[in-house]
């Protein structure tokens, strides 16, 4: 295969396609590209004279192809490539520009990466034109296709207590301290295989275990936690700490530790050499100055003497500074050699959970993440997630991450104090596709930063259209959607610019203000500077479902009357039946064999407003999905509803955690009063309803006042015979349908009741009057049987004139949008 160095390449590819090494210079070789030739250098630059134009990939936003890309175009292309037996690695919709120019000369190109040496020219020509034909069929005849040599891979590679990296500790040597800190980007490796590792991403406080010990989680990639060469089967199936022998991890692998210690030696040697140079120079300057004094023949201090005094002071300051730095590095080296030389001294923690490495449907993102449980004693005074970017100059941070006008107006004020960027918040899907920030050219662009174990701090551009990526889990092909991050070439001084490399998998990618964009999981090795991330807006949901919601804690609460689970801000009391059992004065205990996990179940209709705490019966996290919810004597799931959580101070610890994790939003407090009664601000506002209660109390907010009103006999026969159904549902009041108003009706009903979602199974109770209410179904109105024996939409008509007037005004309000609060 053709050479990839800076010399004139072999001509194996360029024999067939003359621009093979020009089109993406200095990136990958191109086997074939459709369409006209790209612009060339005007000074005759080619392999005979100079170098081709340096080109770089740029992100694409708000392109008309976005709406059709995933299903209509991208999937058709990769399925056709499979039909042609093309060994493709990635399909990337990107723009291309000359490095120094603001505007791309190619606004969108479909770049198809194929395994090097796998595709002859004729096959590449056919694949490119077939893909071009799909674009033409879908209405995009101006978009071209390129076949380039580029593999894709999940990045993994070589890579006691943490040291604290604070402004007052280890000044001047923070770059050397960083690998031993609890900051994002810590290099990690397997204890039993210190040559295999990656990068640690976010740190999570997961609560406490059943022994009241804190659980601190470190997020990384599954293929980093379980390398396929060692744990191939576990990587595909996923696992938890309860199901496999203990798998332990260290901070810094074998090669990484050696590299850091050698860097300390190099710094010490360099500072000593500088001291020698400055001392020798100072002696020569002093001799020259003394000779000048003799020539001046002055007994008083002359110009040469004054100049010598200034120079001596400057040299003394430099030497003092160098000696202080040497002392700090020597102290750090001693600390590292004495307390962190062996892998067991750098022990970090053990595997808590690893998701099965597979395609997650229907989103088609890679489920490639794992959580490592860190011993709390390894982290002292943990103050949140911080990313060290101190190896990025202040001027580069401002010049590359902000538009020229912003950088000039803020005068370096955007650079985080002491080079520690606080990481908080999430960049949502819409902002990835439609960035609100500008790059150095003043163009819309989502610029991102990461700190990885291999490449340190780098800057990249996040693409606004997903890529398709083909990798392997063992011997099985896996096709996933990924977000591409293209390197920012001007940030790098070396010849091959890269945003990431082997060993960086597991690093968190953030925006310039510290919001999380995604988890780095791989890229295109070689010269193709394209990295791939899993978007965090999606990944966060998976973490909450499998880790945060479940907390990874198994409780055995069999026969306990009360328990006090710990949340982030404290404990709260939980009972089995908070309403008690008729005829008993004492609280009933939880049933025997009650072992499992607490989790929060959100409503599908109004997820951040309505939900309930439940208890899943299971042995561990891995069996959560096949477990069943703990039930009450009625047969319905045990629950603690969100209206109670929002209302009562005894639930504050749980409430704060739900707010922090985004499972409930503070605005939900405006939808319940101090007694937990639903407050409705208008029609079409979803609220939770207990179908088994004979009286439904609602608080109607008219804008001027709150009118609390009781509705009776919604689900009974009206003669105090008890409920006809059991269960909980999400419902809403709607304008009463005109077609259901009978001509004989004396009063027009104010509103009807529609079922939106069943939170629990809704069961009809065997009763002689059970046919009074029509079978309940989500999406349908509540309907009751009339005296004529037909079912009619239930409508509410108050008897009292005052209530009628107040609720009539309320029913005119439409403060809540169609999709709910």
TrEMBL record:
Residue ranges with Basic and acidic residues bias: 288-298
Stretches for region Disordered: 288-312
Protein name stated in the entry: Uncharacterized protein
Source organism of this protein record: Psilocybe cf. subviscida
């Amino acid at each position: 295969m053709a050479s990839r160095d800076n010399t004139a390449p072999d001509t194996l590819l360029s024999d067939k396609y003359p621009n093979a090494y020009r089109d993406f210079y200095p990136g990958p070789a191109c086997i074939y590209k459709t369409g006209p030739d790209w612009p060339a250098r005007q000074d005759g630059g080619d392999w005979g004279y100079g170098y081709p134009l340096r080109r770089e990939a740029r992100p694409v936003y708000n392109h008309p192809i976005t709406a059709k890309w995933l299903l209509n175009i991208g999937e058709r292309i990769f399925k056709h490539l499979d039909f042609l037996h093309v060994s493709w690695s990635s399909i990337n919709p990107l723009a291309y520009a000359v490095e120094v120019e603001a505007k791309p000369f190619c606004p969108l190109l479909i770049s198809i990466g194929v395994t090097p040496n796998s595709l002859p020219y004729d096959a590449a020509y056919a694949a490119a034109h077939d893909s071009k034909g799909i674009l033409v069929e879908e209405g995009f005849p101006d978009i071209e296709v390129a076949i380039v040599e580029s593999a894709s891979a999940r990045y993994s590679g070589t890579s006691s207590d943490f040291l604290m990296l604070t402004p007052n500790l280890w000044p001047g040597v923070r770059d050397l301290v960083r690998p031993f800190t609890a900051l994002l980007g810590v290099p990690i490796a397997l204890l039993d295989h210190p040559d295999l590792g990656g990068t640690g991403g976010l740190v999570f406080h997961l609560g406490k275990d059943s022994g009241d010990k804190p659980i601190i989680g470190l997020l990384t990639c599954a293929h980093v936690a379980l390398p396929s060469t060692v744990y191939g089967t576990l990587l595909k199936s996923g696992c938890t700490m309860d199901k496999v022998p203990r798998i332990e991890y260290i901070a810094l692998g074998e090669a990484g530790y050696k590299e850091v210690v050698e860097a300390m030696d190099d710094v010490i040697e360099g500072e000593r050499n500088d001291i020698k140079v400055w001392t020798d120079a100072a002696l020569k300057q002093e001799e020259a100055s003394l000779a000048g004094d003799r020539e001046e023949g002055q007994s008083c201090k002359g110009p040469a003497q004054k100049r010598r005094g200034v120079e001596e002071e400057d040299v003394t300051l430099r030497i003092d500074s160098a000696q202080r730095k040497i002392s700090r590095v020597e102290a750090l080296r001693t600390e590292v050699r004495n307390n962190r030389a062996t892998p067991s001294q750098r022990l970090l923690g053990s595997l808590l959970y690893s998701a099965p490495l597979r395609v997650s449907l229907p989103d088609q993102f890679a489920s490639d993440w794992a959580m490592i449980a860190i011993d709390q004693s390894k982290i002292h005074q943990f103050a949140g997630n911080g990313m060290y970017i101190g190896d990025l100059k202040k001027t580069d941070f401002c010049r590359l991450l902000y538009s020229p006008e912003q950088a000039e107006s803020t005068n370096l004020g955007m650079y985080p104090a002491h080079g520690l960027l606080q990481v908080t918040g999430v960049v949502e899907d819409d902002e990835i596709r439609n960035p609100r920030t500008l790059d150095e050219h003043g163009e819309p662009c989502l610029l991102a930063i990461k700190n990885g174990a291999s490449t340190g701090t780098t800057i990249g551009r996040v693409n606004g259209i997903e890529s398709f990526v083909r990798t392997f889990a063992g011997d099985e092909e896996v096709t996933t959607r990924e977000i591409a991050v293209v390197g920012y070439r001007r940030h790098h001084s070396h010849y091959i610019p890269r945003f990431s490399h082997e060993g960086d998998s597991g690093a968190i990618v953030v925006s310039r203000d510290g919001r999380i964009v995604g988890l780095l999981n791989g890229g295109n090795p070689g010269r193709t500077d394209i990295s791939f991330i899993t978007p965090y807006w999606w990944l966060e949901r998976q973490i909450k479902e499998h880790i945060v919601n479940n907390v990874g804690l198994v409780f055995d609460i069999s026969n306990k009357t009360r328990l006090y689970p710990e949340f982030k801000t404290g404990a709260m009391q939980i009972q089995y039946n908070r309403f008690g059992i008729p005829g008993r004065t004492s609280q009933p205990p939880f049933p025997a064999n009650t072992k499992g996990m607490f989790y929060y179940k959100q409503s599908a209709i109004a997820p951040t407003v309505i939900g309930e705490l439940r208890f899943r019966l299971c042995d561990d996290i891995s069996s959560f999905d096949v477990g069943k919810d703990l039930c009450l004597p009625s047969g319905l799931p045990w629950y603690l509803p969100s209206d109670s959580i929002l209302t009562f101070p005894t639930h504050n610890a749980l409430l704060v955690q739900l707010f922090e994790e985004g499972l409930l939003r503070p605005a939900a407090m405006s939808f319940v009063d101090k007694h937990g009664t639903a407050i409705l601000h208008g029609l079409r506002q979803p609220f939770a309803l207990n179908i088994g209660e004979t009286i439904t109390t609602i608080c109607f907010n008219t804008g001027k006042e709150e009118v609390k009103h009781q509705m009776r006999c919604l689900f009974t026969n009206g003669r105090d015979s008890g409920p006809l159904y059991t269960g909980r549902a999400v419902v809403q009041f709607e304008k009463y349908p005109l077609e259901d108003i009978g001509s004989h009706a004396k009063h027009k009903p104010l509103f009807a009741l529609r079922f939106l979602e069943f939170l629990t199974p809704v069961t009809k109770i065997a009763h002689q009057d059970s046919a009074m209410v029509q079978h309940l179904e989500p999406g349908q109105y509540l309907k009751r049987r009339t005296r004529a024996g037909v079912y009619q939409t239930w409508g509410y008509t108050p008897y009292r004139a005052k209530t009628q007037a107040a609720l009539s005004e309320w029913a005119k309000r439409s403060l809540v949008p169609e999709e709910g609060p």
